[in-house]
Amino acid sequence: MLHQRQQQRLTQKLSPQQIQFIKLLQVPTANLEERIKEELESNPALDLDNDNDINNDPYDLEEPIEEPFGEDDFGDAALLNHVDITDYLREDDSRSSDYGYKDDDQDDEPHHQAIRVEHTFQDYLIGQLGMLQLDEHQTLIAHQIIGSIDQDGYLRREPDAIADDLAFNQNVATSKEEVESIIREIKKFDPPGVATANLQECLLEQLHRIPGKRKSVKNAISILEQYFTEFTKKQYDKIRQRLKLSEADFKDAIAVILKLSPKPGSAFSPGSLNHFIIPDFFVQNNNGHLELTLNARNAPELKVSESYTEMLKAYNASAKKEKRQRDALLFIKQKIDSAKWFIDSIRQRQHTLLITMNTILELQRDFFLRGDESAIKPMILKDVADITGMDISTVSRVVNSKYVQTEFGIFLLKYFFSEGLLTDSGEEVSTLEVKKILEEAVAEEDKSKPYSDEKLMELLSDRGYPVARRTIAKYREQLNIPVARLRKKA
Fold first, then answer.
1. Which pTM was predicted?
2. Residue ranges of the domains in the chain?
3. What is the per-residue pLDDT for 360?
């Protein structure tokens, strides 16, 4: 039976200004200019400020902007005649952007080459979720699955482990079967082979996606399904004899397999040169003093259009207020408010980026001075959030897809974040240091008798790093180091 009832709820909603700021905060420097151009095209009240003199504090934020006028504020001519527009008519530079470099001559700034990837592999996969008809509950599960896919494109976590993560971390109740059903849907995403558990499944998934299923493809599927171990050991004669294939057919099948990608996510890895960005920060070592600079080259200075200000002046001087003028005034004020919001959002973006990066710089000072990976200290998003007083989600948005250029190279900001590990002496070290030692141990091993994960665990334990064998396997996979039998050389 239908009935009505009253219910009191406390909710929190973001204002349009906050939403705009959040979106701008995520934009890398390489895309910022494009975003500003879009706003310039959509808002005629926003204009480039080519003659602006940059003040001494380019990141000083203005007072918060009030909510814009709504249509209800212009209900009749009497109210319209009492609207105060003096804030819009002040002759000052408060509406200019002032978020550029401090240098007087920007033409003397060095030009920096565009570097590396701008969007993550997970971003690309999340963008394809819209093709699935998922409810809110299923979407949360899909995001957790995509977040568990590594940079190579593999989903190495078991479905029941993902279900546990959702239950403990996000209070989302699900089952192993439900997780598996969504994984099957994500496996249909591009690139082919994504979200598979191992190399064999990855290659087979790519083969099954090839249309036509010509003879060479069918033979390739048979090789990988029945004789994958022999294939990895290059026992080609053995495979060909057991499948009773001619030499020509076997070569065609192998040629098909060799064209497949063993790492579907490699095109989106930080080392890929398929996409480019410009570093967001520059750090220079000036005789032991670290100087941080925000790259503002792609952020042209903005101001409220003078022509729109002149329109307001003309209205203010007008004795008669007609309905047509009221409608025009409403439009003008809305566009000016929107322009002011955008300018302030850009300022706040630059200000927040500097505060966050400066905190990372202080926490990882030893690395920026020496460039030694072992100098990187354990650091998580909460550490930066606690120091800056910002929310963890804000720090996460700053870190995402942002790069810093140092004298030791260009690094993704996420590179400086890692969990801590206690050594036998009680000292807390970064997991990056453990990975580096693991990498060195594999590089120095006898390739005729490569170390097993158990042996690597013992070696690290002897050096004071108590790490479980499964952790060794996880780090080895993250470093793209094959298992011992695949590292073995005669």
1. 0.49
2. 16-50+111-117+277-417, 119-191, 198-274, 420-487
3. 92
